[in-house]
Amino acid sequence: MPLYEFRCPEGTTFEASFPMGQAPAELACAQCGEPAGRRISAPRLSVAGSAAFGLIDSTLRSAHEPEVVTGLPGRSRRPATRYTTHPLHQKLPRD
Ligand SMILES: [Zn+2]
Predict the structure, then answer these.
(1) Which parts of this chain are annotated as the region Disordered (predicted)?
(2) Ligand 1 midpoint to CA 14 (Å)
(3) Tens-digit pLDDT profile for residues 21-68
């Protein structure tokens, strides 16, 4: 559903989502209760669902939901695979 922007007489701007073509011309402001008129804003339909939109979304989300690191990078718990059977290679230091 598209997002519509409203602005009340006191200057509070807020957005609300309505089905296409069903947005009211006025909506009660959540702050003061006064009827807030619908504003004309730039549609963001061209970026919705695109890779750019996903990047913007994840960037905004990282501000309050950062990804949590739970371990050292590049280390797996899987035991090392044996690549060689040469006896001298067994004496080489392991990481
Ligand atoms: Zn208001």
Answers:
(1) 67-95
(2) 9
(3) 888 999 999 899 999 999 987 766 665 677 888 888 888 888 888 888
DSSP codes, 48-86 = TTSHHHHHHHHHHHTTTSPPPP-S-TT--SSPPPP----
Q: Reduced to 3 states, what is the DSSP secondary structure of residue 18?
A: coil
Expressed in angstroms and rounded, the spacing between residue 13 Cα and the centre of ligand 1 is 8
**Dihedral angle at the C-alpha atoms of 11, 8, 20, 2, nearest 10 degrees?**
30
Dihedral, CA atoms, 84, 87, 92, 94, nearest 10 degrees? 60
Q: b or e along 71-82 (b: 16 or more beta carbons within 10 Å of the residue's beta carbon)?
A: eeeeeeeeeeee
